[in-house]
């Protein structure tokens, strides 16, 4: 198998992408959002953590382009924006 050597710029991009995922709560958020859109309150309830904590983690994921959001009145719903994260999560969730 031949592996392509990535340029430094691309490696930096991947490192930042992976750093954004490198927290248990953010991985839990991703796992929930893979199933469909959710608002912060629902995520907070599902993850048993505070809304400000969920919002902080969502901000990191949003800034890296991993999740997106859509406002409906006063409610903001989040969804998976970068499908690469779905593939990564599937790989990580496979039992070895």
Q: What does this protein look like?
A:
The chain has 96 residues and is α+β, with helices and mostly antiparallel strands. It has one domain (25-93): Orthogonal Bundle (Arc Repressor Mutant, subunit A). It is 59% helix and 15% strand. It is built from five helices and three strands. It has a three-stranded antiparallel β-sheet. Strand 2 and strand 3 form a beta hairpin. Helix 3 (40-47) crosses helix 4 (51-63). It is elongated and about 50 Å long. The two termini are 21 Å apart.
Sheet with the most strands: spatial strand order: 1-3-2
General shape: elongated
Count up the helices: 5
Largest sheet: 3 strands, antiparallel
Number of domains: 1
Range of strand content: 5-15%
**SS-based class:** alpha+beta
CATH architecture: Orthogonal Bundle
Give the strand tally.
Answer: 3
CATH topology assignment = Arc Repressor Mutant, subunit A
Write the layout of secondary structure elements.
Layout: H1 8-21, H2 24-35, E1 38-39, H3 40-47, H4 51-63, E2 67-72, E3 75-80, H5 84-93
Antiparallel strand pairs: 1-3, 2-3
Condensed summary:
With 96 residues, the chain is an alpha+beta fold. The chain has five helices and three strands.
What would the keywords be for this entry?
96 residues, alpha+beta, three-stranded antiparallel beta sheet, elongated
């Amino acid at each position: 198998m031949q592996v392509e050597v990535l340029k430094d710029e691309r490696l930096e991009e991947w490192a930042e992408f992976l750093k954004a995922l490198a927290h248990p709560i953010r991985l839990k958020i991703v796992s929930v959002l893979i199933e469909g859109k959710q608002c912060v309150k629902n995520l907070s309830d599902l993850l048993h953590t505070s809304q400000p904590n969920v919002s902080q983690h969502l901000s990191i994921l949003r800034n890296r382009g991993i999740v997106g959001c859509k406002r409906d009145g006063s409610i903001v719903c989040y969804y998976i924006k970068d499908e690469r994260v779905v593939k990564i999560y599937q790989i990580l969730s496979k039992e070895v």
